[in-house]
Amino acid sequence: MQTLSAAPARTRTQPHPTAGIEEATTKSTNPAAAPRWRDKPLRLQRGPLPAGARGARLHVDVQLRSNGRAALARAVRRGLLLPQKMLPPKYFYDDYGSQLFDAICDLPEYYLTRTEHALLEAVADEVVALAAPRDLVELGSGASRKTRLLLDALQRAGGRPRYVPIDVSEGMLRRSAQILLGDYPRLQIHAVVGDYERHLHCVRGGRRRLVVFLGSSIGNFTPDEADRFLRRVAEQLNPGDHFLLGVDLVKDHAVLHAAYNDAAGVTAEFNRNILQVINRALAASFDTGAFDHVAFYNAEAAQIEMHLRARAAHAVHIGALDMRVAFAAGETIHTEISRKFTRDDTVAMLQRAGFEPVRWFEPASHYFGLALGTRQ
């Protein structure tokens, strides 16, 4: 990978210092080059999860059974009593929601996954050479698609890695673990069913670590939340451990709008699924058909905002909370933000958290960035 001088700044605000970080670019990623969604019917699984494991190479540590419902109840009560009703996006990801998001990643409009995948494929060997990890920890692992690129690089480097995926969906973790164990005979997996905001202690300890947070999931945090979260990640690591952060970059507004308003309506179903999560867990009476999916780009804040908008005035009862929530026609529940970044934003964010920037990777399209840092 060729190391280049710093690219011209593409910032919304006064640029932050970028001393100590090197930049690499890859061949252009064509956002239009993706599978045609209508040629790939969506097949989503419901029902029982696969059981069993491949010998002693898989350990599943379930952190959410005892307190997950209580945390959801607190978040729902707090969020739906606000003047602008809101729900935390982490609750999109039950088993079905995780499958829906995996399907979103194949949509022609959704450039993020394939752009990040192509970039990571081009730089995985360099990342592994720099980090030299014995443990690969992934926050919000989902289906572990991009993880394979790092596992392949570790395998080429002769490593015997341990993979530590952390995700709220036990079903998705078990399915992806079974597949990975079959494909990587030397791999060991310690899967953590948990919320990476509440269970970061599971990252503590272990061997020389590379922690990855991909998919621009950091964009779901407000600036203050992101700073607090990254500081907490850094606190779990030892000097010499590495952290790889994926960020979606500021780009043409039409490209951003299309990515969150796909023609097939999968993102809309994903957005509404958060209401089904609440229905099941808290005995609520949400009618998902009573809400429209709304997503738009807020240029001032440099973020996509997703909402669910009530089609007509109505009320919802949440049995477990003994709570009645009234909606006016057109009123929205704010379900997600997805902030977009610049290189300077990202470097400064890592430095504030206690990471020393090591490498910046960005494709020629300038659609996505990967920042590698090391714990100071």
Tell me what you see in this structure.
- The chain is an alpha/beta fold.
- It has a domain at 3-25 and 106-252 and 342-375: 3-Layer(aba) Sandwich (Rossmann fold).
- Helices cover 31% and strands 24% of the residues.
- The protein has nine helices and 15 strands.
- It has helices at residues 68-80, 95-104, 111-131, 147-156, 170-183, 223-235, 253-259, 266-282, 343-353, and strands at residues 3-4, 22-26, 58-62, 135-139, 162-167, 188-193, 209-213, 242-248, 291-298, 303-310, 314-318, 323-327, 332-339, 355-363, 368-375.
- The strands form three sheets. It has a ten-stranded mixed beta sheet with strand order 1-2-14-15-8-7-4-5-6-3, sandwiched between helices. A three-stranded antiparallel beta sheet has the order 9-10-13.
- The two termini are 25 Å apart.
In short:
With 376 residues, this protein is α/β, with parallel strands linked by helices. It is built from 9 helices and 15 strands.
Q: What layout of secondary structure does this protein have?
A:
Layout: E1 3-4, E2 22-26, E3 58-62, H1 68-80, H2 95-104, H3 111-131, E4 135-139, H4 147-156, E5 162-167, H5 170-183, E6 188-193, E7 209-213, H6 223-235, E8 242-248, H7 253-259, H8 266-282, E9 291-298, E10 303-310, E11 314-318, E12 323-327, E13 332-339, H9 343-353, E14 355-363, E15 368-375
Parallel strand pairs: 2-14, 3-6, 4-5, 4-7, 5-6, 7-8
Antiparallel strand pairs: 1-2, 8-15, 9-10, 10-13, 11-12, 14-15
Helix pairs in contact: 2-8, 3-4, 6-9
